[in-house]
Amino acid sequence: MISHRDSNAQRIAALDERAEALKLKRGMGIADARAMHxxxxxxxxxxxxxxxxxxxxxxxxxxxxxxxxxxxxxxLFLDVTGCTHLFGGERAMQDEILTRxxxxxxxxxxxxxxxxxxxxxxxxxxxDRIVAGGEEEALxxxxxxxxxxxxxxxxxxxxxxxxRTAGAVMAAPRAPxxxxxxxxxxxxxxxxxxxxxxxxxxxxxxxxxxxxxxxAEPVVLTDDIERLVSRLAVALKSDLERRGEGARAxxxxxxxxDGAVSRIAVGTSRPLREPTLIRRLFHERLAALxxxxxxxxxxxxxxxxxxxxAAFDMLQGDLTGETDDDDADIALFADRIRARLGEAAxxxxxxxxxxxxxxxxxxxxxxxxxxxxxxxxxxGRSAPPMTxxxxxxxVRLFRSPEPIEVPATEMPEGPPMNFRWRRALYRVARAEGPxxxxxxxxxxxxxxxxxxxxxxxxxxxxxxxxxxxxxQGLYGASQTxxxxxxxxxFA
Amino acid sequence: xxxxxxARDTVFALRRQIAKIEGTLPERLEVPAPSAPVDVAxxxxxxxxxxxxxxxxxxxxxxxxxTGIEHLDTALGGGxxxxxLSEIHGLETRDAGAVxxxxxxxxxxILREKQGLPILWVGTAEIFREAGFxxxxxxxxxxxxxxxxxLFSEAPKLLDALWIAEEAARMTAFxxxxxxxxxxxxxxxxTATRRLHARAQNAGRPVLxxxxxxxxxxxxxxxxxxxxxxxxxxxxxxxxxxAGSIGRPAFTVDIxxxxxxxxxQFTLExxxxxxxxxxxxxxxxxxxxxxxxxxxVAVVSASARGADPAPASGAVLAFPALGSPASGDQPSRQxxxxxxxxxxxx
Lengths: 491, 346
Hints:
The complex is a heterodimer. Chain A is of the alpha+beta class.
């Protein structure tokens, strides 16, 4: 028995068959129930866990149709349009779903109808029923008003005027109903009867292409899964070729025998359709996830879905059958690294128009970087002579400038004479600078304090190492003395 | 001191004997002229040993990357092997700027021939945090490497970094692969370097292993260079050097291991305009030659993690021309001892 707190009293939220046999009811106070039967076992309701369970079930139902939606706290909508023939018809499919759920230990009621509203009513008020198209009215007429999915207040006020069944509401004139009880009532009625379309919004975006394989004998080994992936990818290839597209994101869904579903996604940085390459990507991903995937008693359904596609540019190979495309090699290499180590494993610098050193080069993941263009060819046309040399920039830049201690400077605005960085003392032999870099005022938010300017110095210490330091702020500009930072290292 | 010098000579003679028996005499080249003390020490040696020029004679000169500094190229036996793993060491993490700068200069030289190909820089998250992330604007200005040509890979763990580097080393789509590691991790042992080296040889692409604050450990790389920062010369102006200014990047390069086993210390300056090295020859800025230059081999081979790993240990002797792509230089089966393995250290 499960209790929950409702308007300051512990009440029964759900109860099992044995508790029902004891004449306990939903909504009864826990104190009353305990008074009747002191030995009952009460568990606190956990809405979060219920939700997770429902989502797990929704994942599992993915095997029947890609369009699965969660309905409230205890229901699932499956849009099986066009899927039933795969399972031997509507009756066979519903039976299979019910049997499978029953075997997993769930008490499930199912209804199948041509509208979501009618299916909802059939599932909740009949248990196991298939409503043929056009029979919705006959189904709904004898049912109470709660079969119409309306708010409890509307239901109570309808009952107060003597309309106790859905059939009575259907028979009543529409205009006064709409005026008195709002448009929702008629909307629900029309949706249930199929006069208006109702869209069931699926939990997950529907993949443009998927191929799957039901297995008589569940697979456990990673090698077998990989082999299956390459077989599925072969099937996928012809579909992709027909559409003239390549996959940009792929997902592998592994349905475990006991209902758990593993979802493994890989991204590609250029459209892909070659089965061997798809297999290699999943090989890396599976190797990285080896600890996380629990095969248990095995997977009995393996599905490979293409989550997003892009136009595939055909390349003319040369006569030996090899395309000498270095960029493709690198893209595949980057994809494999990303599949194993995550999105941020391969990075690419992108130059940004900014004079703040840390903003001037953005480091972006490879897949998001703009496609590489060939570096400008310098041999043919010589660049115009540079009259203004760009300021020198270090070869390495610290992600966040590291504070250093500067005991003294020769001049208030000058470079330090020595400094302490990472607990070691450095003596400055030579210094160049300052190069003043001010904050970008156009990026400042209206209420924000203006960031102090930075004076950058190139420093060479007594051992010949060169560093890039800066002083944030000016001496005498504010009460606090300016701080010094180490920002980069020169070659 | 005298005692140790005698012992050193004895060990040296014995090593030569062993090498002669094994038939793995290393190639000896003309000793570079400027290092006078070395000359004296070697003149009597060269008189009695046979000069075996294996590897070099058959290897095409194209197999080496010429640094442009004749002495350095000679000391390395023709230059840095292109299809091989090369180690570049920095003694401390704070040398990371100089080590990276030197490696990038080499990459810049490589890019002269392989224009447009990208460079992959693999590092652990640790080194990028400790020593700073490569800064593309600076690299472009100094080494002429376009930001589009750069690809970074930051691996959370060393094992992942090694995996990425191994996967990249066998690709021909990269002009060079740089792997940056901090410290002396156990994972980066002889086997790991041998794998990298083999893949680099197969692909014909250089792999530069940057080891910050690492000790000289057994490695399969034919060349190990120890790089530290050298104080830069002043900027040149029309009116002469500008006092107090910091000019071009300068490095001090020690040869820790090479096929010729010739010692050497060079102070190189990188010319960012020409993209070429220049050697600094002025006497006053050259560091004094250290004592070990007279006889570069330690009395006892350095242990793997010893307290005093000498930068140049003698095991180079039993490491003949591994880096060269030629196969004809292997000794015949009778000559090849069955247990060459332990001698490969160095």
